[in-house]
Structures are given as structure tokens and as C-alpha cells.
Amino acid sequence: MQLSDFTSYKFIMRLGGLLILLVLIGVMFVLPSPNQTTLRQTPDLTITDAPQPLTDQQQAVVSDLRLKIGLADSGSEVIILTFWAEWCTPCIEEMPDQKTFQNHFADQPLKLIAINSDKGSAALDRAQAIWSDKGWGHKFIADSDGLATQAFSVDVLPNHLVIDQAGQIIYRWIGAIDWLAPEMIEAFNRLTSKKPQTQQ
Asked: Torsion angle, CA of 51/70/114/180, rounded to 10 degrees?
């Protein structure tokens, strides 16, 4: 090997090492740290489309959920369905704020119902442990048969739906949201102050 070849080899090795170092530094800045929380969006609270009446299948699911948490099937409440799973980090991170949100409206006609989408006994056991630690008071609800998930076409988590007193889906949000945003509280103050409409 000639001296010039050796010098070129050393230069290439050093350059390669520098590139690897730069890549590693970039990865450190891009990857979230274990303690970093998921960015939560302020939900879109503008109803742009006509409210979507519940299908018979969806209505049956909601009635069953009401029964499971001991809520009378009166149709006088605003219902929020939130789908979650034990492997869904944004779902778990939302739970404390969801509980605070529910407590804020404790004396209002509003009920937030969490539906677990896990499958398999091991995953359900982990989900129940999380619920015992962070849950909102009503009992653990598992959708292990997938009926609720199918009825509301849930394929991404977290997934949230709002059903008004007339039995219509008026909001749907996918992803982590800011439950305690002032706009959120104001919107649900307005919703819960509405009188239920008599269905024809």
C-alpha cells in the first residue's frame, strides 16, 4: 500500500466516524425520551357536518354500556365514548386529564365512558391494573368481542366520540387531545346546558 493510499484510507475512516457520530446525535434529538409526553391537540369543536344519528347497532351498544355502568337509559345526557388499550401510550397519558374533566362535569348531564379494546387475557389483565390505578370510578369495560369497536368503526387509538342528548354523533376526535383546554370546557358547558330534544 502506498503512503497516499494509506492517507486516503485514514481520511475516509475519520469521515465515516464523523458521519456516524452526527447520525447518533441526530437520533438523540429526534427520538422522544421515556418521560416525554405525547403532544395533545386542542380538539376541533366546530360542527361542520350534519350530526350523524346513531344506527340501530350503535344505539344497542350505547344502551348496553349505560346498563354496564348503572346509567339510566333516559337519553338526557351527553355521552363521550373513548376507546383505549393498554399498549396505547397516548391513551394512558390522557387518563388523568379525562378523570379531571369528568369530575368537573360530575353534577352535569354528561358521562364519559371508557371502552377497552384489548384482546387476550394477559393484555386484559394489564389493562385492568391500569384502570384500577387511573380509572374514573365506573367499572372496567372490555370490548373483547369487538362489538363496540366494530359498531363505531374504530381502527385507530385513542378514539373519541361525542353523542348529544338527541342521540347524534356531533364530534369525533382521533388521537390524544387536550381535555382541559378552555375551549373544551366551554363547549361542553354549552352542550350540557341544552335541554334534551324530544325525538319524533
From this structure: 70
Return the H-helix or E-strand segment holding 162: strand 159-163
Cell numbers linked to 20: 456516524
* Strand (E) or helix (H) holding 160: strand 159-163
Cell of 148: 363496540
Question: Among 51, 52, 60, which Cα is nearest to 148's?
Answer: 60
Pairing of strands 110-116, 78-84: parallel
Cell digits for 65? 354500556
Segments making up each domain of the chain, as ranges? 1-31, 52-193
In what helix (H) or strand (E) does residue 184 lie, and over which residues does it extend?
A: helix 182-193
Q: What is the pLDDT of residue 41?
A: 75
Count of C-beta atoms within a 10 Å radius of residue 65: 21
pTM above 0.85, yes or no: no
Fold that domain 52-193 belongs to in CATH: Glutaredoxin (3.40.30)
**42-82 per-position pLDDT tens digit:** 777 765 467 889 999 999 999 999 998 888 776 789 999 99
Q: What is the pLDDT of residues 130-162, one digit of tens each?
A: 998 887 777 899 999 999 999 999 999 999 999
